[in-house]
Design a protein that fits this description.
The complex is a heterodimer of chains A (363) and B (333). By secondary structure, chain A is mainly α. Chain A contains 15 helices and no strands. Chain A is globular. The chains are: A mainly alpha (363), B alpha/beta (333). Chains A and B meet through helix 3, helix 6, helix 11, helix 13 and helix 14 of A and helix 3 of B.
Chain lengths: 363, 333
């Protein structure tokens, strides 16, 4: 079968999609009477031209990397895990319990403990839908969506009735002890004169997310388990014939996926807020789906897609701060990017493929 | 002095003079959004009133938790003063950020801090007192002896509203049946008119003929369904009587608009460093009476409610706050 070269598929298609989304967004901004060029300059200036902007972008990107990887791992087994949001919420509960009830001497130990707590809680939350899918055939899309709501209700109950400090109105835990505070980029990179990354939430969890990217890459393409996951995802009957246990693979893939989603909470809960709040994930679990789609379920693609969405989030905040563009419109711009890079992928790919084929023939 | 220090010094001087020239107030809305027809919109109305008198301000609708600190810092650094925020969620962050900007004044509505920095003012409302009054009116207007309460997200603040309401209703009729439902457990519960409408229908089926909505944007659905089904409803925060004239018994007013307007008006001379509690006595809460609901409110009702109002102000009548021991004497949530 004729195909276009891999480099074009991996770079040209997303870039053209992105360009189309940007053009359409420009029209939308023009339609409400703002200047799209100015808006873009503002987004670039607030995100890439100042170190605190980078700090916010990388902070958001850290969230999206974890949830994107979570969706990707499940997707390699052709399981559509929409429950990243709920798994991350429950992962946050794991982080909070670990930070509040274990007296950590130093953050380096605390982050290991919190990683284990977050991954265990997130994985446990993915376990039930996984077993229901594997043994009973209950569709994983439905059950994971439902588990998002159950997670929100559980967290609400625990925060309001158990973990809320006395006298406080807000459903949130108290602040974690100082020893669990993770070093931010400001602590790590700022020098006397430069004050890089001042007052921005990016923290050491970013490197944890990078490590997770590498780990997922090794797992999927360089281990026996990863091979089994991919084989199962490509064709279940063939995998079964080859002696791969579908129940086992479904459950393991979902456990890894849930664990990765849960680890997102280290960034928001331990790295930024330093306490568990009700709204700790704010949709990053769902953005993860778009990130995984755009990144073609490959860790490197996910890293790039997560950075792009981090840019859109931070750039959107700048627009909200300094222009009269309403926040709903910023969501529209983000949605256009998702639409073009995720859902309308073939719209760009097919004509592009034809062009490449014509070029090949003329050569 | 190195070049860098010179540069930083110049930048700081520029920022200071820039700040002195600007000194506009800034307003940060909570995640519910500016146009929720209720809490945040009341803040917006107060700011618009300030703008109508020739002032100018800048505002932002938050989209994510991480933006809370970002918006506070960016506004403070750009020289806006005072920086006003709505909703309790931002208060702990504001308490920390305020320490870095001693020359900027910060105001929060609904929040609570164990220690208030000298440049922070926290404004709270005695919602249970206002809810008590509308609870009395609900019980007096009810013919079935059953009244309903529909809350937004199930958090202590909303139980606080419901608790005052239940106490007021019980004060009029000790045998009254109170049905209380919460719309949900996630922040989407603040903006779910369809669910609000369903809950209203469910409460009507159980006999309720007056429902009180303390649910932000969800309340729009409650009021609509109540009007369609021919029962009475009670609005919240802003005066919502006009939404369905003759169908909305009254609205529990929470004068966020006044608090915002006054803070903006005071500008840099704003008094800070403590709590402002606005109750019935300060007219921070109350019930709405206008042409739209005048036919619904009988003289007897008005007399009883005004008497209770005076007794609460004088301290002869105490409405128990839900926060006092996280439970309500009049209703089990």
């Amino acid at each position: 079968m004729d195909k276009m070269p891999a480099w074009a598929d991996a770079t040209l298609v997303p870039l053209i999609s992105l360009f189309l989304a940007a053009v359409l967004s420009a029209f939308v901004i023009m339609a409400i009477g703002e200047n799209p060029i100015e808006a873009l300059m503002l987004m670039v200036d607030g995100t890439l031209m100042r170190s605190s902007g980078w700090g916010y972008m990388l902070y958001y990107a850290t969230n999206f990397m974890f949830t994107g990887l979570a969706v990707a791992v499940a997707f390699h087994a052709r399981l559509f895990n929409i429950g990243g949001e709920g798994q991350a919420l429950i992962g946050g509960l794991g982080v909070a319990l670990v930070c509040l009830y274990i007296p950590w001497p130093h953050w380096s130990l605390a982050i290991i403990g919190a990683s284990v707590g977050a991954a265990l809680f997130g994985a446990a939350w993915a376990y039930i839908p996984a077993v229901l899918q594997a043994k009973r055939g209950s569709h994983i899309v439905i059950t994971t969506i439902m588990f998002n709501f159950i997670a929100a209700a559980v967290l609400n109950y625990v925060l309001v009735n158990v973990l809320r400090p006395k006298g406080a109105q807000e459903p949130a835990t108290g602040f974690f002890p100082d020893a669990t505070a993770l070093p931010s980029f400001f602590d790590m990179f700022a020098t006397e004169g430069s004050r890089l990354f001042r007052n921005s939430p990016a923290n050491i969890t970013f490197f944890l997310a990078l490590a997770a990217c590498v780990a997922v890459w090794v797992l999927i393409w360089h281990t026996r388990l990863g091979y089994q996951i991919r084989a199962f995802g490509e064709r279940e009957s063939a995998a079964k014939y080859a002696g791969i246990n579908p129940v086992r693979i479904t459950v393991i893939a979902m456990l890894i996926s849930g664990g990765l989603a849960g680890m997102m909470a280290i960034n928001t809960t331990m790295g930024e807020a330093e306490r568990l709040i009700l709204n700790a994930t704010e949709g990053a679990g769902f953005i993860g789906i778009a990130v995984a789609l755009m990144g073609r379920s490959h860790p490197f693609g996910i890293l790039l897609a997560a950075l792009l969405f981090g840019f859109l989030y931070q750039g959107g905040a700048e627009l909200a701060l300094w222009t009269n563009i309403p926040r709903e419109l910023i969501v529209v711009i983000q949605a256009l990017v998702i639409l073009f890079t995720g859902a309308l992928d073939n719209m760009v790919r097919m004509p592009l493929e034809r062009i490449f084929l014509v070029m090949r023939r003329t050569n | 002095m190195t070049l860098m220090q010179k540069f930083l010094g110049a930048a700081a001087a520029l920022a200071l003079t820039g700040g002195a020239a600007l000194a506009e107030p800034a307003l940060i809305y909570d995640l519910g959004g500016k146009f929720d027809k209720s809490f945040n919109e009341a803040a917006f109305n107060g700011a618009e009133l300030f703008a109508a008198e020739g002032g100018s301000y800048r505002d932002i609708e938050l989209q994510s938790e991480a933006q809370r600190e970002q918006a506070l810092r960016r506004f403070a650094e750009a020289g806006f003063n005072p920086v006003i925020t709505t909703g309790f969620s931002i208060a702990p962050i504001m308490g920390e950020v305020a320490l870095d900007y001693p020359d900027t004044k910060f105001v929060n509505i609904d929040g609570w801090l164990p220690e208030v920095p000298p440049n922070v003012q926290l404004i709270g409302f005695q919602e249970h007192q206002g809810s008590y009054l509308v609870g009395m009116m609900a019980a007096m207007a009810s013919k079935t002896g059953t009244v309903g309460f529909i809350g937004g997200m199930d958090i202590p603040l909303i139980r606080h509203f419901g608790c005052g309401y239940a106490q007021g209703a019980k004060a009029v009729n000790p045998d009254i049946k109170i049905i209380a439902n919460m719309t949900g457990t996630t922040p989407t519960a603040w903006n779910d008119p369809v669910k609000g409408s369903e809950l209203t229908k469910a409460q009507i089926a159980q006999g309720a003929d007056v429902v009180y909505a303390a649910a932000g944007g969800t309340g729009v659905g409650v009021l609509q369904t109540a009007a369609d089904e021919g029962i009475l409803s009670i609005g919240v925060d802003s005066n919502q009587n006009y939404l369905h004239p003759g169908k909305v018994l009254t609205s529990m007013l929470k004068r966020v608009d006044v608090a915002v307007y006054n803070s903006m008006k005071a500008g840099e001379n704003l008094e800070t460093g403590g709590f402002t509690v606005l109750g019935l006595a300060e007219e921070g809460v109350g019930y709405a009476l206008d042409d739209n609901n005048a036919p619904l409110v009988s003289d007897e009702m008005k007399m009883a409610v005004d008497k209770a109002r005076e007794m609460i102000i004088a301290g002869d009548l105490e409405v128990t706050a839900y926060y006092a021991n996280d439970s309500c004497p009049a209703h089990q949530f």
